[in-house]
Amino acid sequence: MSQPIYILGIESSCDDTSAAIIRDREILSNITANQQVHQVYGGVVPELASRAHQQNILPVIDAALKSAKIERRDLSAIAYTKGPGLLGSLMVGGAFARSMAQALEIPLYGVHHMEAHILAHCIQEDGVQNPDFPFLCLTVSGGHTQIVRVDSPRSFQLLGETIDDAAGEAFDKAAKIMGLPYPGGPEIDKLAQEGDPKSFSFGKPRIEGLDFSFSGLKTSFLYTIQKGQKEQADFVQKNQADLAASLQKSIIDILIEKLNKASVQTGIKEIAIAGGVSANSGLRDALLNNGRKKGWNCYIPPMRYCTDNGAMIAITGYFMHQNGELDKGEELSKARWGI
Asked: DSSP code of 239?
């Protein structure tokens, strides 16, 4: 019987410091330290984020090892987020991972953040079904909106992506216009459950192919609010839930429409979603409802794997380890990095 593979996954692409231990494809621990400091500023402040990573990374990794009940010497390899993300934050995780791998004399793997979100679907857990290959994955986050064809754990084809704002960014900016606290996406989701999604209509972009655009929708939302406030000073307060529900429906309609098109073009009916916005209740329900009509097999990640986490980095590192994709530690972290 072969020896189990233990991999430490380190995630530091934005404002969450996370570490996880995986044994083959089973997660033994997944520890995350959040940064509350950014709420005061209504968005992530890069310099503050990198400083917080420096404070959090060692305690988080120690906690992950203790929770997994293994020692550092038991690790087979280390995986870390190489990009894309905030450069300062990425460099903290990358520097720590390189130093630790060198000290332990074990392999190092630089992971693509968006590939990792997708491969969270390949973690083996009781009660969680893994998609069959090939599958399509709609990856939706604050910085990215993409449709990716996944032919194997190490074979990805980008079919479409946003040409401007990401869907998560549209949620957050709309929430800010409404005066909601940061992060705005979850606040919109909560309000939307109490509102009428047909109350307001916003301009939808006409983008050919499988690419997305959300800047026009965001502008239309802003104009709707400005017009309403001219007629009624407390327009936003009186219509909060309906505005949130209408915005959410507009964004989700755009996402599902492109996903339908991608499924028809590729003939693939194994459909997954991933990324921070995959936690949105409206999107999850819309995917399942649409999937039933289209005959899809739909895969929605557990909530703990929607936002940035070390587990998704660890599972990607596992497949890179199996594939022999060594990171020599010479390349710097990448703020921008195509899938």
From this structure: H
